[in-house]
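Milestone 3.1: sequence recovery, worked example.
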């Protein structure tokens, strides 16, 4: 299996961390999205949306990080993606929430407070920061409450749900995410940061 990836990306991180955690043999192919490689015709044949990551397994190709995670975790028996329907529904619930809601606040704060200064494309837009901060608080309150009595999101054990939701905290510090009043999120994320797969996929430099 070959993972086309862009290491600084939280979407890449989710998929790559699952492969590492399960010790799956994967080949890595760097796609330099800063140089526009995602728009090359050969790459667009793999993913017509021109985004990373993509997984290629023989003549099977899948894009969207969540689908890649599920495909990877289906290769071997494991507790990240258990067989039973209720566990899977709960995991997909959190993965759906991450893509639809959690990312809205986290992604915008990451962009405004971290990516813009880093790439010299302007100052953070205060209105966007305020809008994203409100979304962040609304969603973080739900996550914090859920984690108050558990160590992990589903089945009280590490699952794909944790990798998905944790990915958006990759840049929590430089993105100035207001996590001060969410002790259970902080404690849970500290547990995720202990995982070798999470440490190995941390952005460099
Ligand atoms: N929903 C997609 C999002 C993928 C995505 O936005 N990837 C970004 C990197 S974080 C990308 O490749 N962007 C390149 C571009 O938009 O040109 C997923 O979960 O895989």
């Amino acid at each position: 299996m070959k993972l086309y990836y862009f290491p600084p990306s939280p979407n890449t991180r989710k998929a790559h961390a699952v492969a590492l955690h399960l010790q799956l043999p994967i080949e890595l192919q760097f796609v330099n999205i800063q140089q526009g490689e995602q728009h090359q015709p050969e790459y667009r044949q793999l993913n017509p949306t021109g985004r990373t990551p993509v997984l290629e397994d023989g003549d099977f190709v899948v894009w969207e990080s969540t689908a890649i995670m599920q495909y990877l975790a289906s290769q071997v028996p494991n507790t990240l993606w258990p067989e039973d329907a209720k566990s899977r529904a709960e995991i997909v619930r959190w993965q759906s929430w991450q893509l639809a809601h959690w990312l809205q606040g986290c992604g915008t704060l990451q962009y405004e407070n971290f990516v813009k200064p880093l790439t010299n494309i302007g100052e953070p837009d205060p209105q966007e920061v305020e809008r994203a901060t409100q979304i962040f608080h609304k969603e973080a309150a739900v996550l914090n409450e859920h984690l108050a009595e558990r160590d992990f999101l589903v089945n009280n054990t590490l699952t794909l749900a944790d990798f998905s939701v944790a990915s958006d905290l990759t840049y929590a510090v430089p993105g100035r995410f207001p996590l001060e009043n969410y002790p259970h999120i902080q404690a849970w994320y500290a547990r995720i940061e202990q995982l070798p797969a999470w440490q190995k996929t941390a952005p460099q430099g």
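Residues 3 and 55 are 5 Å apart (CA to CA). The first helix runs from residue 10 to 21.
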